[in-house]
């Protein structure tokens, strides 16, 4: 089954404008075509954003996240993240998202593909015809 790790940008675009990849991803998930994952660092990034001061956004985000499996920052992902940063492929929290996907053998769904393109072996989610 296809595995997809969702980056923060996907949730932000949906929360702000009800557009982007999330509706397509959720449809694939609902139809049993993929498993969706969210690294816990993405949850941190979401809650750090100013839009989370709005109850409606919080409620909607909680609802979206309730259906998605969590990826904890364990030792394997931490080491992979360190390698990615040391090799200057990508920095910051995006490195944790990328490492999570690599360890799961998953694709990354993001609205910021340029942030992830340099990561060796990482597959980016592209919606394909069903």
Automatic annotation (TrEMBL):
This protein's UniProt keywords: Hydrolase, Magnesium, Metal-binding, Nuclease, Toxin-antitoxin system
Short name of any one Pfam family annotated for the protein: PIN
GO molecular function, one term: metal ion binding
SMART domains: PINc
Organism (species): Candidatus Woesebacteria bacterium RIFCSPHIGHO2_01_FULL_44_21
Lineage of origin: Bacteria, Candidatus Woeseibacteriota
InterPro entries given in the database record: PIN-like_dom_sf, PIN_dom, Type_II_TA_system_RNase
Family from the record: Belongs to the PINc/VapC protein family.
Domain called PIN: residue spans: 2-117
Record's protein name: PIN domain-containing protein
Cofactor(s) the record lists: Mg(2+)
């Amino acid at each position: 089954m296809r595995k997809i790790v969702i980056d923060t940008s996907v949730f932000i675009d949906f929360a702000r404008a009800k557009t982007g990849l999330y509706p397509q991803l959720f449809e694939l998930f609902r139809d049993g075509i993929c498993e969706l994952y969210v690294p816990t660092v993405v949850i941190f990034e979401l809650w750090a954003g100013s839009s989370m001061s709005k109850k409606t956004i919080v409620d909607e985000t909680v609802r979206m996240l309730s259906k998605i499996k969590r990826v904890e920052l364990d030792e394997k992902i931490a080491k992979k993240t360190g390698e990615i940063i040391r090799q200057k492929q990508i920095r910051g929290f995006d490195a944790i998202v990328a490492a999570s996907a690599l360890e799961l053998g998953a694709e990354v769904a993001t609205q910021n593909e340029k942030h992830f393109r340099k990561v060796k072996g990482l597959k980016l989610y592209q919606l394909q015809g069903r």
